[in-house]
Design brief:
The protein has 297 residues and is mainly beta. The protein has three domains: 37-155, Distorted Sandwich (Glucose Permease (Domain IIA)), CATH 2.70.70.10; 172-231, SH3 Domains (SH3 type barrels, Roll), CATH 2.30.30; 233-292, SH3 type barrels (Roll). Helix content is 8%, strand content 42%. It is built from one helix and 29 strands. The chain has one helix at residues 2-25; strands at 37-40, 43-45, 48-50, 53-56, 62-64, 69-77, 81-90, 93-102, 104-105, 112-113, 118-121, 133-138, 145-146, 172-176, 184-187, 194-198, 203-206, 208-210, 213-215, 221-223, 227-231, 233-236, 243-247, 256-261, 265-267, 270-272, 275-277, 283-285, 289-292. Strands 1, 4, 6, 7, 8, 10, 12 and 13 form an eight-stranded antiparallel beta sheet that branches. Strands 5-11-9 form a three-stranded antiparallel beta sheet, with no helix packed on it. Strand 23 and strand 24 (256-261) form a beta hairpin. The chain is globular. It binds zinc ion. Zinc ion is lined by residues 40, 50, 52, 54, 134.
């Protein structure tokens, strides 16, 4: 009996010791908002408070929402340059994240964004020397900054920003929604015969959807419920002052219809011959769009 009591005490103590570790881990709500190197941390810097962290990278670097929520600011602010703030509700708490020095802004006040959604390009506007993202986390709201590091998990989920080169006929991707060792069955038709098994977490282009099955190219179909589908999303690869031409066919023989503005985001309905179908017979040349790799949460 004494032994049992002792081991119970041990168990209770272990739980008490372990619990805070879990509590820390559970605050890692936010996805890293950009690729790059952290060049400056949160805290006192040159006698001033640095209210966020700086993430720097050269080139065209997409900035994405660290968590789902509503856009509360999309403006130009002294020092911050082009800045976007987003309000998040997580459990019973409210947070506001800020993304500053942007080259351009792709969302407006009141917009709802999902975690990982593109919100603008990393830039060098405002009081900034060299392109970087200044990222802040406020709790519960603006002007109550806290260390973003406390809320950022591993960098595994960072959008890689690589351009996709989809194959003819595709319009999105699926990721197999099981553990890696489990996987799902591939059939030769919707409700057809078993062909093979593909591993969980693997990613495939999607060419069609019929009767609750996605086509992965050729005679390979997977059931809708076992995969996570993401349509390609196209971002016009110029800032708002420019636009790109829209044609009525996926070739240089297509007729000009109109111009669409830079920073706009479109669903892609098909990729063909280097052109993307933005719906309703509107085609844009691939060079003018950046297709962001779909994110799987
Ligand atoms: Zn900064």
């Amino acid at each position: 009996m004494k032994k049992l009591v002792l081991s119970l005490v041990t168990v209770v103590l272990s739980v008490l010791v372990v619990a805070p570790v879990y509590a820390d881990a559970s605050t890692e709500y936010f996805r890293w908002p950009a690729e790059g190197t952290v060049t400056s941390e949160y805290g006192m810097r040159w006698g001033d408070m640095h209210e966020g962290i700086d993430i720097a990278k050269k080139g065209d670097v997409p900035v994405t929402a660290a968590y789902s929520g509503y856009v509360t600011r999309s403006t130009e602010m002294n020092g911050y340059g082009n800045i976007i703030t987003i309000r998040h509700k997580i459990g019973g708490d409210t947070y506001e994240t800020a993304y500053a020095h942007l080259r351009s802004k792709a969302v407006s006040v009141g917009d709802y964004v999902d975690i990982g959604d593109f919100i603008g390009w990393m830039g060098n506007t405002g009081d900034s020397s060299g392109q970087h993202l200044h990222f802040e986390v406020h709790k519960p709201s603006w002007r109550n900054s806290t260390n973003p590091r406390d809320y950022l998990g591993s960098r595994a989920g960072v959008l890689d920003g690589t351009e996709f080169n989809p194959t003819n006929g595709s319009y999105g991707y699926v990721q197999i929604d099981t553990s890696p060792e489990y996987g799902v069955n591939v059939y030769d038709a919707p409700n057809g015969d078993f062909v093979k098994r593909v591993p969980g977490q693997s990613v495939y282009g999607v060419y069609a959807k019929e009767d609750g099955y996605y086509n992965l190219g050729g005679n390979q179909w997977v059931k809708e419920g076992s995969v996570n589908f993401k349509r390609f999303r196209a971002y016009v690869n110029y800032d708002h002052r420019y636009g790109v031409n829209v044609y009525d066919a996926p070739s240089s023989n297509g007729d000009f219809i109109k111009k669409v503005s830079g920073n706009d985001v479109f669903n892609v309905y098909e990729y063909r011959n280097g052109y993307y179908n933005l719906g309703a017979g509107q085609w844009v040349k691939g060079d003018n769009l950046l297709i962001i790799k779909p994110l799987f949460n």
